[in-house]
Amino acid sequence: QVQLVESGGGLVQSGGSLRLSCAASGSIFRINAMGWYRQAPGKQREVVAGITSGGTTNYADSVKGRFTISRDDVKKTVYLQMNSLKPEDTAVYYCNARIIRWGRGSNEDDYWGQGTQVTVSS
I need a labelling partner for 59 at 20 to 30 A (CA). Which of 18, 21, 97, 109 fits? Predict the structure, then answer.
């Protein structure tokens, strides 16, 4: 099986920073795209940032210039550095990875972390 385990959430004041990590483990042959999503109370889950296996990144307009996504393929980990945090960034953050497991040929499956709470106080 495959697991994604997130860490790094917490409570921070407006203007502060946090760094989220998401480590993948299990029977992994290859990790393709990875990304971060978030869901605020009463709202739909939305994409925050994504990174391809080649390192190409993309960001939601609301976080451009403040958040940075990166990955370490040796550690099978994706990171989200969040700077200049705002109260509207408060949400549960989820990591996502598209993974090919050993013995599955080129078939890619979608995996999600359990979520980590980020709360930004004003």
Answer: 109
Closest to 97 in 3D by CA, of 107, 84, 110, 106: 110
Alpha-carbon Rg for the chain, nearest whole angstrom, is: 14
Classify residue 122 by its DSSP letter.
Answer: -
Contact 41, 94 (CB under 8 A): no
Q: Taking the CB of residue 66, how many other CB atoms lie within 10 A of it? A: 15
Torsion, CA 44, CA 45, CA 48, CA 49, rounded to 10: -140
Per-residue pLDDT tens for 41-57?
Answer: 999 999 999 999 999 99
Which of these, 77, 67, 73, lies nearest to 19 by C-alpha position?
A: 67
